[in-house]
Design brief:
The protein has 183 residues and is an alpha/beta fold. The protein is 15% helix and 20% strand.
């Protein structure tokens, strides 16, 4: 029997595998893939699993797994910043992606996704849930000099909300270690 978290990670890795070129033998790390550039004004953003202060939304979105969705309503931007939804919409999900970066100066999201450009043009909403990118995707990046992007050992756990997730003691689960094997 395989643990659900391992199945979820394998599913995400399989989906992300579509970003790789079939011609190249080696797996390209995230930092070497060319992302789509999506203007803030083109998509609305919503964190669906918890409340996030508007000032912290970009921190939550950066380096996150997002649903690329289409809501029937037109996106209207009254401010110069990102469009934030106050409620989780009922919408179609066209695929998934990783927000590889947020460029505040140019007001752009940098998104890695295997969704074809003709479908990506229909996306007007990014939904961020409680699904983490598998650790091996971030930690196992080859060819990075210096610090690995999105991975840090210098972290301040006194910041509210930054601590480790607490395990619920009444659930009895076995722990599994899952290593990404890129060979």
């Amino acid at each position: 029997r395989v643990h659900s978290s391992i199945l979820r990670d394998m599913s995400i890795l399989g989906y992300l595998g579509q970003l790789q070129s079939p011609d190249i033998g080696a797996v390209l790390p995230l930092h070497s893939l060319v992302p789509y550039q999506v203007p803030f004004s083109a998509v609305a953003v919503r964190v669906i699993h918890t409340d996030v202060a508007p000032t912290n939304i970009m921190y939550a979105v950066n380096a996150s797994w997002v649903g690329l969705c289409r809501i029937p309503d037109e996106i209207r931007c009254q401010t110069d910043g990102p469009v934030l939804l106050t409620q989780t919409p009922v919408c179609d999900c066209l695929g998934f992606g990783i927000v590889r970066g947020v460029e505040m100066e140019k007001k752009l999201y940098h998104i890695l996704t295997p969704v074809p450009p003709e479908n990506l043009r229909l996306v007007n909403c990014l939904l961020l849930g409680n699904i983490a990118i598998p650790n091996c995707v971030l930690v196992g990046q080859q060819g990075v000099e210096g610090e690995i992007p999105y991975v840090t050992s210098d972290y301040n756990y006194s910041i509210l909300g930054s601590g480790k997730l607490k395990k619920k003691k009444h659930f009895k689960r076995r722990e599994y270690a899952f290593e990404c094997d890129y060979t």
